[in-house]
Amino acid sequence: MPGILSYSGIVTKTKAMRSRLLGELSFQELQMQPSVSDALAYLKRYPAYERCFEDVEEGNIHRGLIEADLSGSLYEDYSRLYRFANMAQRKFLALYFAHYEVLLLKHCIRNAYNPQGGSLALDRFQAFFKKYSGLDLLILGRCRNMRDFVEALRGTVYHSPMKRMFDSGQATLYDYESCLDLFYFQYLWRQKDRILKGNEREVITENFGYQIDLLNLQWIYRAKKYYHMDSAEIYAMLIPVSYKIREREKRLLVESESLESYMEQIQKTYYARVAKKELEEASSLEKLYDRLSEKMYAVAVRQNPYSLAPVHDYLFQKEKEIRRITTILECIRYGISPSEVAAI
């Protein structure tokens, strides 16, 4: 009863917002649009995006502005949930907000490495981040080297790990981004036990525990397939948390001699037992991550309908939708056929 009373409002709000997510038919129609302008006009038919592209002019629809407008839709949804939440629920949302900070910081790092590579319109987020965050996006967005970027983080929780990486003198773009990921998940894993209690803590521990395990599985796979990293390098990049993957299993996965033996080891894990169908159907670990994440979130919502699980699931689904829209728009921009878009 206490869970129903305290969560009925925000769960009802979340269900209403979820009904505005695009269905599969909408994605199919979107990818059939002949131009980016037509695709944006199509998206504006939907309540979640009808005000999204008001300031985008016909001759100025570059990727940075479109990404900014789509991200703005995500941030608006976050704000709606935050306004609807009670004090305990706001503590979770404040913790979750670090995820958005890390995504923006990664963009700023890439911009510092390659100032000519295009820029997300960070000024559009300044008011939003000023309300929920201690980051000054305008200053960070103007940084054109890592020394200035690290200095701009002074006074935030991100300064210390970024400064250690910078002081090493050998950090690459990949190293900085990996450092942020590691810091975020370790920070989140510690803070959840401090700010959450009872069933709320159990639900979020489960959700984040699954996410950490699945990310580690994906990172091991990518390290072996694309970067040919040795075991010591792989261990250094992993999130030092194990939820359903035992340490012995993690060791066997990291030290497997080939991708084939790695996939054989995955078949012996908890995730192969609870998601056998998803594991068989996914063509890569990247796709498997999305499928398993979807399944785990759905299970959490089903088992805990009046909890933080529906809120967490909605934010995951919304972000996934925006990534998919962004990919489709870029495919339209570069003339990739609808059949190729569908395969992405």
Briefly, what is this?
The chain is an all-alpha fold and 344 residues long.
Helices and strands in order, then pairings?
Blueprint: H1 2-18, H2 24-31, H3 36-43, H4 63-84, H5 87-113, H6 126-132, H7 137-141, H8 146-152, H9 159-167, H10 173-195, H11 198-227, H12 231-237, H13 247-254, H14 259-266, H15 270-274, H16 276-281, H17 285-303, H18 309-333, H19 338-342
What does the model show?
- With 344 residues, the chain is an all-alpha fold.
- It contains 19 helices and no strands.
- It has helices at residues 2-18, 24-31, 36-43, 63-84, 87-113, 126-132, 137-141, 146-152, 159-167, 173-195, 198-227, 231-237, 247-254, 259-266, 270-274, 276-281, 285-303, 309-333, 338-342.
- The longest helix has 30 residues, at 198-227.
- The mean pLDDT is 88.
The class by helix and strand makeup works out as mainly alpha
Described by the principal axes of the CA atoms, the overall outline is: globular
Pattern of helices and strands: HHHHHHHHHHHHHHHHHHH
Content of β-strand: under 5%
Mean pLDDT: 88
Query: In whole angstroms, how far apart are the ends?
Result: 44 Å
Helix percent reads: over 70%
Number of distinct beta strands: 0
Question: Please, how many helices?
Answer: 19
- Contiguous low-pLDDT stretches (5 residues minimum) are none
Report on the biggest sheet: none
- Cα-atom Rg, whole angstroms? 21 Å
